[in-house]
Automatic annotation (TrEMBL):
Protein name: DEN5B protein
UDENN domain location: 1-261
Keyword ATP-binding carried by entry: no
Taxonomic lineage: Eukaryota, Metazoa, Chordata, Craniata, Vertebrata
UniProt keyword Protein biosynthesis, yes or no: no
Taxonomic source organism: Zosterops hypoxanthus
PANTHER family listed in its UniProt record: DENN DOMAIN-CONTAINING PROTEIN 5B, PINSTRIPE, ISOFORM A
Gene Ontology terms, MF aspect: guanyl-nucleotide exchange factor activity; small GTPase binding
Length: 261
C-alpha cells in the first residue's frame, strides 16, 4: 500500500506502482529516470475499481526539468484493465474481510457493546449507515469484477500535447478493441519512436497513428514558443477572474503556485 491510508476501504486505497516496460532501453541524451516517470505517471499510486465504478480513461501531462534547465515532456493516458490474477482478487477479498471486521469493532466500541451482543445492541442508525457504506465500498470475488489502473506514456523533447494525446487514444483503442488493428501494435510503437522525426522549426509534420493521421506543428525562430495546450480548458478550470489575476501576477513577475488534486 502506498502511504498510510488503512482507514480507507481497500478499493479507495492506493498501492505502490512500478514501470512495467519502456522503449527504447537507453538514449544517451535523454536517460530514462524510472522513479521520476513512475511517480509522475501515477502520482497517487496504483488504484483498483469494480464494475460499478467510473473507469473512463484520463489524460494528463508532466514536465521533467533537469539540473541544466533542459526539459522533457510526458503525456500519460491512464485506463483500467481487468485483473486476471486470482491471487490478487483473493487478496482484495481478504483485505475487505479485515476492513469490515475493523469497522464492526469500531461501531461496536462506540455503541459500548460486546461483540456477542452486536446484533441486538448496535444503534439502528449506525447499522444502517454502516450497511450503506459497505454496500458502496465492497468487493465480493464471486460477484464483482476487479480492475486495476495502468498507464501508457509518451516522453517527448517538445510539448506536442495534441499529437501525443491523439496517438495515445488511438493506441488505447487498438489495445481494447475487439478487432485487431491493421498492423501489430509493435509496428506503431516502432514507427513513432524511430521513424517519425521532429518537424523542423516553422514546419508541420503529418504521420500516421493507428487509425487516423496525426499532424503536429513546430513554430519558427521568430514565432512564439510552442504552446499546444488548449486555452479553453484553462478558462474552464480557473474561471475568468482567476485567470486575469494569474495573468496580472505573471506581468508583475510575481511567484505563482497552482495547487490541485
Amino acid at each position: 500500500v502506498a502511504g498510510e491510508n488503512f482507514n480507507q476501504s481497500p478499493l479507495r486505497r492506493t498501492f505502490k506502482s512500478k514501470v512495467l516496460a519502456h522503449y527504447p532501453q537507453n538514449i544517451e541524451w535523454n536517460p530514462f529516470d524510472q522513479d521520476a516517470v513512475n511517480m509522475l505517471c501515477m502520482p497517487k499510486g496504483l488504484s483498483f475499481r469494480t464494475q460499478v465504478d467510473n473507469r473512463d480513461p484520463q489524460l494528463h501531462s508532466f514536465i521533467i526539468t533537469r539540473e541544466d534547465g533542459s526539459r522533457t515532456y510526458g503525456f500519460v493516458l491512464t485506463f483500467y484493465e481487468e485483473v486476471t490474477s486470482k491471487q490478487i482478487c483473493t487478496a482484495m477479498q481478504t483485505l475487505y474481510q479485515m476492513h469490515n471486521a475493523e469497522q464492526y469493532s469500531s461501531v461496536c466500541a462506540s455503541s459500548s457493546c460486546s461483540m456477542d451482543s452486536l446484533a441486538s445492541s448496535i444503534d439502528e442508525g449506525d447499522a444502517t449507515s454502516l450497511a450503506k457504506l459497505q454496500h458502496y465500498n465492497s468487493y465480493d470475488i464471486s460477484r464483482d469484477t476487479l480492475y486495476v489502473s495502468k498507464c501508457i506514456c509518451l516522453i517527448t523533447p517538445l510539448p506536442f500535447m495534441q499529437a501525443c494525446k491523439k496517438f495515445l487514444i488511438q493506441l488505447y483503442k487498438a489495445v481494447t478493441s475487439q478487432q485487431p488493428p491493421p498492423l501489430p501494435l509493435e509496428s506503431y510503437i516502432h514507427n513513432i519512436l524511430y521513424e517519425v522525426p521532429l518537424p523542423p522549426p516553422g514546419r508541420s509534420l503529418k504521420f500516421y497513428g493507428v487509425y487516423e493521421p496525426i499532424i503536429c506543428q513546430r513554430p519558427g525562430p521568430s514565432e512564439l514558443p510552442l504552446s499546444d495546450y488548449p486555452l479553453r480548458e484553462v478558462f474552464e478550470l480557473l474561471g475568468l477572474e482567476n485567470l486575469v489575476q494569474v495573468f496580472t501576477c505573471v506581468l508583475l513577475e510575481m511567484q505563482i503556485l497552482l495547487y490541485s488534486q
